[in-house]
Design goal:
Layout (H helix, E strand, L loop, with lengths): L4 E5 L3 H13 L3 E5 L2 H11 L3 E5 L7 H10 L8 E5 L4 H9 L4 E4 L4 H18 L2 E2 L6 E3 L2 E4 L4 E4 L2 E2 L4 H11 L6 E2 H9 L8 H14 L9 E4 L3 E4 L4
Parallel strand pairs: 1-2, 1-3, 3-4, 4-5
Antiparallel strand pairs: 6-7, 7-8, 8-9, 9-10, 11-13, 12-13
């Protein structure tokens, strides 16, 4: 297994060099970007194992970069640590709601940042669902999701899911423990014409729970994150 690759994005060169030095000292492979557009392109091209992303960037801010990454199914599960001088609670909430996994404010301790990087990489490795080589089949505690056959089985029994229900469980299950907002699910499953109608997601989640949960009122697989969206159960 090769060294984890970390993309560091900041328009302040001394910050980039500080973070890069400390990460490389720990054995990580580091790539860098100095603006939002370059960051989005590198994330798609290099597919790093983790991204350290500043909010205030030229050309495109970190929030927009985060949104772009969330829309790309190939990299949407990449852990993101937001790095910024902003410390208002609203900024932190916004970052987390659009897909960031953690938030560190400047000035920061390199040791603290390194600890958060290690924790996020460990968590990402632990939460990665089991898949069959080359087939993309997801297995998680009795559930088997087969994207090629558009088929879901629970404890060996095939479930009768609608196409939208299948897409919902597939999106959620491929990133266990990660919160997906209602707007993200609407945009990626239903399309732009449904944006704003979050009731659509809630109704389909309710129907899906009735099919996969032994007690839909106390769900095990799909958890509600109040005011934000939903997440699939974390692997224990």
């Amino acid at each position: 297994m090769g060294k984890p690759t970390i993309l560091v994005v900041d328009d302040e060169s001394h910050i980039v060099e500080l973070v890069k030095f400390n990460l490389e000292k720990e054995g990580y492979h580091v790539i860098t970007a100095e603006n939002g557009k370059e960051a989005a392109e590198m994330a798609k091209m290099k597919k790093p194992d983790l991204i350290i992303l500043d909010v205030m960037l030229p050309e495109m801010d970190g929030y927009e970069v985060c949104r772009i990454i969330q829309k790309d199914s190939e990299i949407s599960d990449t852990p993101i640590i937001m790095l910024t001088a902003k410390c208002e609670e609203i900024d932190k909430v916004l970052g987390l709601e659009i897909g960031a996994d953690d938030y560190v404010t400047k000035p920061f301790s390199p040791r603290e940042l390194l600890a958060r990087v290690k924790a996020r990489l460990r968590r990402a490795a632990k939460q990665k669902p089991e898949t069959d080589d080359g087939k993309g089949i997801i297995r998680m505690d009795g559930l088997v999701i087969d994207p090629e056959r558009f088929e879901v089985q629970l404890a060996g029994t095939r479930l009768d899911l609608t196409p939208k229900e299948f897409e919902l469980i597939r999106f959620l299950a491929k990133s266990p423990g990660r919160v997906l907002t209602r707007d993200f699910l609407l945009e990626n499953i239903w399309g732009y014409e449904y944006i704003g109608d979050t009731r659509t997601v809630d109704v389909h989640i309710r129907h899906l729970r009735q099919k996969i949960e032994s007690d839909p009122a106390n769900p095990i697989y799909i958890e509600t994150v109040r005011g934000i969206g939903y997440k699939f159960k974390e692997k224990r």
